[in-house]
Amino acid sequence: MEPLNKLVLCLCVALAVSWRGAIVDAVIVDGLQVGFYSRTCPEAENVVRDVVNSEVAANRSIAPGLIRLFFHDCFITGCDASILLDESPSGDVPEKESSANGFTLIGLNTIDAAKSKLESLCPRRVSCADILAFAARDAAVAAGLPNYDVVAGRRDGERSNMDDLPGNFPVPGHHVPRLTELFFQRGLTQEDLVVLSGAHSIGGAHCFMFSNRIYGFSDAADVDPALDPAYAARLRQLCPPRKPDDDPERAPKINFDAVSGDRLDNSYYAELLARRGLLTSDDALVQDPQTRAMVEAFARDDALWHRKFAEAMQKVGKLDVLLGEGKGQVRKQCRLINRPPPQQQPQWPAHPGFPWRPPQFPRRPRRPIRRHPVFDLINGFFRGFH
């Protein structure tokens, strides 16, 4: 290779590497610890686990809801429990009010219950961000995943703004290139994208999230041809065509995985290969050759996916966390930041003998100022001018 060609190649590689590095806007923070509360609140993880197990036993939708809540929190501004805030001190509309969240968020009351128990046991010790990380792990385990360790020591953020989401968060209509780009910006890989999508082996989506695939897909086809015809026909039975006045909250909800919708396993990947991916973003994983190879690997090996999923969740849990005193806070209530008590105005002592009491003098009435006749003349001139 000619020297000039070598130089050009090196410069191109350097520019490509620097560009890829420049768009990463998240940091995987080290410094969190397994057993962080072993001295300050030894029962912290057990308390969260008990609450989650109880809630999941009563309502199976809590498990996917908590995993989703954790991911939605960490993917935007890091794992700082900002998604739990009902209001932001700056007056911004909080993340939970975004169209990507809103009424679809499930598990908020579970976090409130765990926090309430921990506050009675260990006041102002366990952060809401850590409770959410523990709860997501416990939800996954309750749904069939083997147990894994969760590092802790996160502190809670003091801001939340729904304007942080648009353009920075995956949506059901995204394809692999855009999904990969968003994950890369958050310090995650394409493999993390495919692995974490496997959380769709539990939970479901409202009809309006995929209605574009079963009604009016294109000028040439009413139904997305990538869908298995029998599966598409079933979806059309469950989800009638949308009407302008339909209430999204009342829309039917369909399981992502029709085979084992309550168990966190690799059947999601087998369903994708059978052309039964519910969302466009699900089906995109088998349409792209790079991600399809991963889908096939996970469809063959449940244990491999379980291990990879735990590792990816641990990685997500370290995104842009707040560590140490002076960064964030430990909220007393997960929905509200801790506000400082109002400062009281100093009161002067009533005893007249204290030397620093300011003396009280009667005010003299102000004497009227005598104005010169010329002043009235000049003032009248300017008033007339205006």
Automatic annotation (TrEMBL):
Enzyme Commission designation: 1.11.1.7
Disulphide bridges, residue numbers: C41-C122, C74-C79, C128-C334, C207-C239
Check the record and name the InterPro entries matching this protein. Haem_peroxidase (IPR002016), Haem_peroxidase_sf (IPR010255), Peroxidase_pln (IPR000823), Peroxidases_AS (IPR019794), Peroxidases_heam-ligand_BS (IPR019793), Secretory_peroxidase (IPR033905)
Q: Enumerate the Gene Ontology biological process terms.
A: hydrogen peroxide catabolic process; response to oxidative stress
What this protein catalyses is: 2 a phenolic donor + H2O2 = 2 a phenolic radical donor + 2 H2O
Residues at the active site: H72 (proton acceptor)
Q: Which residues bind Ca(2+) 1?
A: D73, G78, D80, S82, E95
Binding sites annotated in the UniProt record for Ca(2+) 2: D257, D265
Q: One MF term in GO for this entry? A: metal ion binding
Phylogenetic lineage: Eukaryota, Viridiplantae, Streptophyta, Embryophyta, Tracheophyta
Q: Which family does it belong to?
A: Belongs to the peroxidase family. Ascorbate peroxidase subfamily.
Q: Which UniProt keywords apply?
A: Calcium, Disulfide bond, Heme, Hydrogen peroxide, Iron, Metal-binding, Oxidoreductase, Peroxidase, Secreted, Signal
Q: Which PROSITE patterns match?
A: PEROXIDASE_1, PEROXIDASE_2, PEROXIDASE_4
Q: Which cofactor is essential here?
A: Ca(2+); heme b
- Write the protein's name: Peroxidase
Q: What does this protein do?
A: Removal of H(2)O(2), oxidation of toxic reductants, biosynthesis and degradation of lignin, suberization, auxin catabolism, response to environmental stresses such as wounding, pathogen attack and oxidative stress.
**Which intervals hold domain Plant heme peroxidase family profile?**
31-338
Task: Name any one Pfam family assigned in the record.
Answer: peroxidase
Annotated residues that bind heme b are located at: H200
Q: Where is this site: Transition state stabilizer?
A: R68
Q: Where does substrate bind?
A: P170
Subcellular localization:
Secreted
- For this protein, what does the record note about how its cofactor is bound? Binds 2 calcium ions per subunit.
Q: Which Gene Ontology cellular component terms are annotated?
A: extracellular region
Leader sequence residues: 1-26
Native source organism of the sequence:
Eleusine coracana subsp. coracana
